[in-house]
Write a sequence for this structure.
């Protein structure tokens, strides 16, 4: 079973490395200085208190993913449209496609682009960052959940992928309610991703201080209200669990924080901005998510100017 990662950022590199170390055939799609570093020096992978140099299979040519039975689409939401366009003509009828994007929109977009393929929705609850080209640091958590989103001829590969992750010492399981699974991840992101990028403080610090915790909780409450109007099975208990877990986890440098430091566009429009916009469409308001979105946009504008 050959597993391709369409996107070799921190998430793709971490999980690709874990699978390759466990003996699976893995190929990472990368580019630029990161690709050069991976091909020249291998992947420097810090995880579970150990640092290893992993020779890992990489490519810049997307057509090299064609033989893969499973393709994990691990680019950011900001790059998903371009990635799906590039994958046209590459995907075989029996290829299983897996989304690992933030937000709740990616599985539907992938399913629309490849209407006859098995599509799996995925969430990774992990602290990981690309420290420099060719160097990934895994700092917290790392579990992954997958749920079948669109049926196709390769649905059976989902169980095999779960077994592969488990063999690679990644906590992985199938979620019977992938929509709620996606919204629970969105819930955490709405609470912690933007506020950590604005303050440049770790997520557990935002949960530990009363003033910032109020903002975290309000952003999450707005997210729950929107989810429930759509029949999504999440609630106040999920907020409490996210805060409890965050207080106990290691130093998580969130994706928006990393993007802002690197001068890249953030995914805020797919996270807090999505909740604010969709709530407005439902004739209501989400003022905390709207404020967080506006502040991130202001920071992004400073980079653009």
């Amino acid at each position: 079973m050959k597993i391709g990662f369409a996107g070799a950022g921190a998430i793709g590199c971490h999980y690709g490395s874990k699978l390759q170390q466990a003996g699976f055939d893995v190929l990472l799609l990368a580019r630029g200085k990161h690709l050069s570093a991976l091909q020249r020096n291998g992947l420097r992978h810090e995880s579970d208190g150990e640092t290893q140099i992993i020779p890992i299979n990489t490519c810049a040519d997307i057509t090299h993913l064609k033989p893969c039975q499973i393709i994990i689409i691990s680019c950011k939401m900001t790059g998903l449209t371009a990635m799906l366009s590039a994958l046209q003509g590459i995907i075989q009828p029996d290829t299983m496609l897996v989304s690992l994007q933030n937000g709740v929109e990616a599985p539907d977009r992938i399913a629309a682009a490849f209407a006859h393929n098995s599509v799996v929705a995925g969430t990774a609850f992990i602290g990981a960052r690309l420290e420099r080209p060719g160097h990934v640091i895994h700092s917290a958590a790392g579990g992954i959940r997958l749920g079948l989103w669109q049926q196709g001829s390769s649905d059976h590969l989902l169980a095999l992928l779960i077994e592969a992750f488990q063999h690679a010492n990644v906590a992985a399981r199938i979620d019977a309610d992938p929509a709620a699974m996606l919204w629970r991840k969105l819930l955490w992101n709405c609470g912690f991703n933007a506020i950590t990028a604005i303050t440049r403080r770790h997520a557990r610090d935002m949960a530990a201080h009363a003033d910032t915790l109020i903002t975290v909780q309000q952003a999450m409450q707005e997210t729950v209200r929107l989810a429930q109007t759509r029949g999504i099975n999440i609630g106040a208990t999920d907020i409490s669990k996210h805060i409890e877990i965050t207080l106990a986890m290691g130093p998580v440098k969130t994706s928006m924080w990393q993007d802002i430091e690197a001068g890249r566009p953030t995914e805020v429009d797919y996270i807090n901005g999505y909740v604010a916009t969709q709530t407005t469409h439902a004739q209501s308001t989400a003022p905390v998510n709207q404020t967080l979105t506006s502040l991130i946009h202001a920071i992004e504008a400073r980079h653009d100017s």
Observations:
- The CA atoms of residues 223 and 275 lie 6 Å apart.
- The domain at 2-176 is CATH 3.40.50.720 (Rossmann fold).
